[in-house]
C-alpha cells in the first residue's frame, strides 16, 4: 500500500515546482536589486524541492518491497523535473547576465562572457547527468534489494518444506517402529498359544491313555 506521507510530499512538489516555473518565466522582467532578491527566492524554492525529494527517498525506503520499485520510478521522474528546472534557471540567469557567486547563492549583477555562459551551462549539464547516474544507481540498489528479499523468501520456503519432510519421515519411522513391535508381540503370543495348545493336547492324550488303561484292567 502506498503511504500517505509520500502523497503529501508529491502535492507539495507540484505546487512548489509550478511556482518556480512561474518565477523563472518572469525573471527577465525584473531589474536591479529586485532581480537579485527574486533570484534568491527561486533558489530557496529549489532548495525546498531538493529537501522534498530527500524526504520522498526516505519514504520510499520505508514502503513495502512490493511497491518500492514503482514509487522509486515516480521519485526519479520528480528528480528529473528538478534537474530540468535547475537547468532552465541557469539559462535564464545567463540571459539576464547574472553572475553565480557560489553553488546556491548569487551576488550582484554583472556582465557574463560567452565563455562563462558556456561553462555555466556545461556545469549544469554535468550536474544533470550526475543526478541521473545517482538515480540509476539507487534504482539498481532497490532492485538488488528486492531480488535478495525474494531469494531469502524462497530459501525460507524451501527450509520449511525440508523441515516438514523431515517431520513426516520421522513420523513414518516412528510408525514403522510401532508396527515392528506389534508384529513381534503377535509372534510371541502366537508361540505362546502353540505351547499352550501342545500342552493341552499332551494332557488330553495322557488322560485318554490313563482312562483306557484303567478301563481294560
TrEMBL record:
Q: Name one Pfam family in it.
A: V-SNARE
Taxonomic path: Eukaryota, Metazoa, Ecdysozoa, Arthropoda, Hexapoda
| Species of the source | Melanaphis sacchari
Compartments in which it is found = Prevacuolar compartment membrane
Predominant location = membrane
What are the record's GO terms for cellular component? cytosol; endoplasmic reticulum membrane; ER to Golgi transport vesicle membrane; Golgi apparatus; late endosome membrane; SNARE complex
Q: Which family does it belong to?
A: Belongs to the VTI1 family.
Protein name in UniProt: Vesicle transport through interaction with t-SNAREs 1A
**Cross-referenced InterPro entries:** GOSR2/Membrin/Bos1, SNARE, v-SNARE_N_sf, Vesicle_trsprt_v-SNARE_N
Amino acid at each position: 500500500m502506498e503511504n500517505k506521507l509520500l502523497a503529501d510530499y508529491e502535492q507539495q512538489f507540484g505546487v512548489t515546482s509550478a511556482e518556480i516555473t512561474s518565477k523563472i518565466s518572469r525573471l527577465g522582467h525584473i531589474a536591479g536589486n529586485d532581480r537579485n532578491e527574486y533570484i534568491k527566492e527561486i533558489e530557496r524554492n529549489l532548495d525546498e524541492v531538493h529537501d522534498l525529494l530527500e524526504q520522498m527517498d526516505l519514504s520510499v525506503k520505508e514502503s513495502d518491497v512490493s511497491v518500492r520499485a514503482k514509487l522509486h520510478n515516480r521519485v526519479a521522474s520528480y528528480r528529473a523535473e528538478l534537474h530540468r528546472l535547475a537547468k532552465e534557471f541557469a539559462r535564464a540567469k545567463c540571459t539576464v547576465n547574472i553572475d553565480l557567486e557560489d553553488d546556491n547563492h548569487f551576488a550582484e549583477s554583472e556582465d557574463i562572457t560567452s565563455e562563462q555562459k558556456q561553462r555555466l551551462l556545461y556545469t549544469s549539464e554535468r550536474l544533470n547527468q550526475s543526478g541521473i547516474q545517482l538515480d540509476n544507481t539507487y534504482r539498481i540498489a532497490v532492485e538488488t534489494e528486492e531480488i535478495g528479499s525474494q531469494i531469502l523468501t524462497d530459501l525460507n520456503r524451501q527450509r520449511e518444506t525440508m523441515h516438514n519432510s523431515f517431520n513426516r519421515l520421522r513420523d513414518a519411522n516412528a510408525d514403522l517402529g510401532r508396527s515392528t513391535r506389534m508384529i513381534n508381540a503377535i509372534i510371541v503370543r502366537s508361540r505362546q498359544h502353540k505351547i499352550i495348545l501342545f500342552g493341552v493336547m499332551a494332557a488330553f492324550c495322557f488322560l485318554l491313555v490313563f482312562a483306557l488303561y484303567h478301563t481294560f484292567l
